Amino acid sequence: MTVVARIALAPSSFALGRAFETIPDVTVTAKCVVPISSATMPYFWVETTDGAGVAERLCEVERVEDVSVLDETESQSLLKVTWAEEPDDVLPVMSDTDAVALDVARETDTWVFRLQFPASDSLSTFNHRCRERGVEVSLERVYQSTGAGEPRDGLTPAQRELLATALEVGYFEVPRQTTLRELGDGLGISDSAASQRLRRGLSTFLADNLRTGENEPTE
Hints:
By secondary structure, this protein is α+β, with helices and mostly antiparallel strands. The chain has helices at residues 15-20, 51-58, 90-96, 120-132, 157-168, 180-187, 191-210, and strands at 3-9, 27-31, 43-47, 64-72, 76-83, 100-107, 110-117, 138-144. A hairpin with a 2-residue loop joins strand 6 and strand 7. The chain starts with a strand and ends in a 9-residue tail after the last helix.
């Protein structure tokens, strides 16, 4: 039975994280539209009104050969990065253990991956090989993708607390009964951190509950 793991990695643990250390003021996400492979996650979204500017800054990073803007909205840009060489980091380990990155997001000073493995043994192998490479993996949550009684939403405790609090204090009501800053203050985090955690939590919850053919309830 497949298992899903939510892990946190330091930016220095993988090529994309290191690249964005030079651009600390943008939110980055990647969805499983393209399988993880040794090509190293070439496609990702950044929340910015200046996709060309972000691409230009990334091109100055070591090991980045080229960055192009594939699509843009009012607040986001879809970028494709071409790496000069295959990095020796955590992403090739994902490929070797048949891990699928359901989604990836940058959260303040860490990156959160939601990975699906074909079996628990694959997850154990992933952790072992990461340790061999000196990569510290923080395992936040592990659950089976199907099976009665198993968690279905994939949320971290912090995300669940934020969503529950937002619902309780009327953040989702129209008009809103509180602001994002007040919501963050109540939880002891900045409004920026609250915004990222809220978007991340909503994205995970909706993806897990709306994905066709997965986690369908049985009679």
